[in-house]
Specification:
Blueprint: E1 4-7, E2 10-13, E3 18-24, E4 33-39, E5 46-51, E6 58-60, E7 68-73, E8 78-83, E9 92-99, E10 112-113, E11 117-122
Parallel strand pairs: 2-11
Antiparallel strand pairs: 1-3, 3-8, 4-5, 4-9, 5-6, 7-8, 9-10, 9-11
Length: 123
Amino acid sequence: QVQLVESGGGLVQAGGSLRLSCVGSGRTFSIYSMGWFRQAPGNEREFVGRISARGSSTVLADSVKGRFTISRDNAAKTVYLQMNSLKVEDTGVYYCAARTSWTDDRASVSGYWGQGTQVTVSS
């Protein structure tokens, strides 16, 4: 089992950058594939990206490719989402997720979730 706590959200102007962090508890953080999702008001939770347990591979949604990067530090039990060139449509609550096996990017798949951190991008 793992508990996840996100941080780093805030208000930023379009074109700006933010780095989100997600810290996990427990001794087995390094066995989990980690991912980021976001949810805008009135919308379903959508996949943003994920990183493998050892950090050797990442997958990003088409909407954020070239702007966002995912990385992790297993010694610090932390996964990061670096967001550059932010757009108004990136606004939402960002959640990190942990899964022991990641074969499906839908938010409905079972796993562990953090409480979310709000990102607001103004025009």
